[in-house]
Amino acid sequence: MNTRYSHINRPTTSLIDQIYDSEAREELAILDLSNTDVITDDFEQDRHITYHLKAPTYKWLADRLCFAPGTEQCKTDYEQKILSLLMSIDPNMLITLQYIFFVTKEDDVYDVCQKVEADPSEFPETIDFDENDQLGCFWYQYSSIIINLTAIEQAVHEIADETEYQKEFEIGLMTTLTHEIRHLGLSNMFLYIGDYPPEEAEEEAVERWGLTAYENWKANYKGDK
Ligand SMILES: [Zn+2]
Question: How far is the CA of 179 from the centre of ligand 1 (A)?
């Protein structure tokens, strides 16, 4: 059981108190506040950020997953594993998570953008459905993750034969997810710097963290919840 959540703002202040302090310094505005979430307008970065104040649950995480039309098989095969993996990682990495989108094609851009109320022109250029060379990305503006399943399939076909395909696909999917989650988690400006030094955000460190998170989960995974 990971208990670091309660230590997020060591040594003294809670997350909500830090957000109040930031508001008092006019660094952000609180737009909405409930027992579970604070929505802020981070005007310097021109972003609305929702901070989830509770430790993540399966239900909360399941509500974050968005499978585009045509990805039903992936949902059937991997949804429970993905939720189990996300429950196993440092929960501080999930505080600002909005959505994780699983997409395969250009047509999905419209639905994804509608969900976060973005203009389709804002969809990250790195996710390219012609090249399919980027497996996933952290969509900073909307605190979301986009996973391109077509790109993962293509990458796996290049390295694995039929017998290895399922195993390698799972590794590709899960490590893309943990890698991008790490980028998201470390973008939270309220993380205690003593626990999350800036070098943790370097690409190599992010990649290493993602692999380790997957391997630790895999070693303990006992089957569907
Ligand atoms: Zn990266």
Answer: 6
Separation of CA 32 and ligand 1 centre (Å): 31
Instruction: Work out the end-to-end distance of the chain between its first and last CA atoms, rounded to an integer number of angstroms.
Output: 16
Is residue 2 domain-shared with residue 74, that is, in the same domain? no
12 lies in which domain range?
1-55
180 C-alpha to ligand 1 centroid (Å): 6
Element (H, E) at 142: none
Closest CA to 94 of 125, 71, 68, 63: 63
CATH of the domain at 112: 3.40.390
Q: What is the distance in A from the centroid of ligand 1 to the CA of 93?
A: 15
Please tell me whether residues 45 and 149 are part of one structural domain.
Answer: no
pLDDT one-digit tens code per residue, 84-109: 999 999 999 999 999 999 999 999 99
